[in-house]
């Protein structure tokens, strides 16, 4: 062997297990598991939608919930959107969700930005106060006394203010704001920008993904909330849709509009069954989340990429 010969180490030709080509049995197993997971999610939704569009005869012949559609009967949805308690409840939930999400985002962003800046007045005590809520929660009775003491009984603000800020979302936003390079803050201040301008022109444009995710968390929480309505709302015209749905399904109460005949083009006058109205309310409650999520999905993906790529 000459002196100019370079001895190269033997390369390991074995690849990691996750890089190996899956076997036929493995592919079949993955396909089967994914199919079962999709079926567990889709089948209940399918049954709810089909039942909401079924007549009394079809529901009775199926013994309750309907899996195979036999006819198209939208009378339950006509009842829901023709006015009455359910229509008012949908309007109340929409107002609470929009107003509550906007307020929660503003408060959470401002608090997270202030707590993410070193040297903020009262930084450590305020942060400790927020983190303490992870371990100690005031409980139902003190919360009820505070809300009623502020005169918020039978007021939509009682559905918004008690849950206006989440300590978990605050910590998430604060951590993201702290990961933004400090040079951006310094350059903005050298140009004469104040804190509010830095927040609106630099921090928020860089935080669209995490802000959208936190906003979705708040919106879904407000839309699905019903327990605060049980505590603080006695008027029927201020009940959110989830509270009405809870009364219909769990408490066994019948919708106020059920039992009345409605006119359907092509079907004549028909009386929507109570079960169909209940399932129609369920469909109405889950549709907003199904509509909003695809638009926020890209922010989820972008947030994962931003969090994964470093340097």
Please identify which CATH superfamily of the largest domain we are dealing with. Answer: MetI-like
Terminal CA distance: 44 Å
How would you classify the helix and strand content by structural class?
mainly alpha
Please state the average pLDDT score.
80
Percentage of residues in strands: under 5%
Please report the first level of CATH classification, the CATH class of the largest domain: Mainly Alpha
Taken from the alpha-carbon principal axes, the silhouette is globular
Number of helices: 13
Organism: Actinoplanes philippinensis
Transmembrane segments: 33-53, 89-115, 127-147, 159-177, 198-220, 275-296
Keywords: Cell membrane, Membrane, Transmembrane, Transmembrane helix, Transport
Protein name: Putative aldouronate transport system permease protein
What does this entry look like structurally?
- Helix content is 63%, strand content 2%.
- It has 311 residues and is mainly α.
- A two-stranded antiparallel ribbon has the order 1-2.
- The radius of gyration is 27 Å and the shape is globular.
List keywords for this structure.
single chain, two-stranded antiparallel ribbon, mainly alpha, 13 helices, 2 strands, 311 residues, MetI-like fold, 2 domains
Any chance you could write out the topology, listing elements then pairs?
Blueprint: H1 24-52, H2 56-62, H3 75-80, H4 85-116, H5 123-132, H6 140-149, H7 167-179, H8 182-190, H9 195-206, H10 208-224, H11 227-232, H12 241-249, E1 262-264, E2 268-270, H13 274-308
Antiparallel strand pairs: 1-2
Family: Belongs to the binding-protein-dependent transport system permease family.
Domain ABC transmembrane type-1: 90-292
Keywords: Cell membrane, Membrane, Transmembrane, Transmembrane helix, Transport
